[in-house]
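Tutorial, part two.
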Amino acid sequence: MLTPATRHRDFPALDTMTYLNTAAESIPPVCVGEALQTYWQDKLRGMSGRDAHFKEVEDCREVAARMTGFKPAEISFCSCSSEAYNLLATALNLQPTDEVIVTDLDFPAGATPWLTAAIRPQTRVWQAVGGELRVDNLAALLNAHTRLVQVSLVSFYNGHRLAWTPFRDAVRRLAPNALISVDVTQALGRVVLDCADADCIISSTHKWTLGIHGGCIVGIPERAATRLTTHAGGWFHLRNAFDADRFQRAETKAGAASFAVGMPNFAAIYSLNAALRYVESVGVEAISRHADPLVAQVHAGLLQLGLQPMAPAQPSNPTGIIAFRHPNTAAIQTVLEAENIHVMHHAGRIRIALAGYNTKEDVVRLLRTLSGAV
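Running the prediction step on this input gives:
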């Protein structure tokens, strides 16, 4: 997808390392650094720079909408996925008789707000079997009391991708009062999304989207806006923030706009706007066509080394992540680091993430080094 010349031009940091950890932190393209410099120059103009700041927000909203399948008015930004999920909890105003379903492949940001709420709903866990979530096991958890089903389209933990259509159909049929929220952090920018009919999507910005920290995309369709309007204080998300009656009442904008409670993190949005447009110019389909075979190559290589991937093979529903367990992962990580090969090591699990900027040579180096390590 990238020639050696364009890879060096856009991602010069990759000249000196084999980077296979985009699921934790991306290597942003050079244009993201240039966008940060543009922000800095606009910031130096003081109050006059705000016109440029807010234009960047609208431009970023436009490209984020195209990449998620939403309308620009249905997209907003906050600081991180944890903030977004806590704001979602205020919108739902759940009661002890309400039920929330999370999965054991979810990231904590989406799974824990319901456990720490002042008024806690009943939280049920949809458990993976053999590293994958099976709709048959979800059906028994769904009922008229289910208010929210929270999932990740791609699991940060093992790379499993949810079969969206049968999942969505089961929820709509068996839990008619439930909203569906989906974390696309490990999908957006790496795989083609098929979940635009969710009631809420949330994505961090420093992974496959190639942005930086301090940003989060929130998408809420118009049909769900009334039910998913936050009850948080602030000012940027209010219609009457500076009206004469502002201390008597607060009129919150509906839906996605209610999640932008304060001044936007303009630096993160400048970066995200540049990063999304870079990804869009390449094309997520092209990224998948390039990187999916690399994932398959790693999967096959792990099996040859006697290492069992934690999720089933992904020939029909591929993602960018593959993970395995080993009794001596700390030592394996040490060997990989000595060769300047970057992967994620955590709690006995090694996670490998392959992005559009990775190459066949990266995979060869990884498997060769793993062979010696194990």
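The longest strand covers residues 146-152. In part three we will examine how such features are distributed along the chain.
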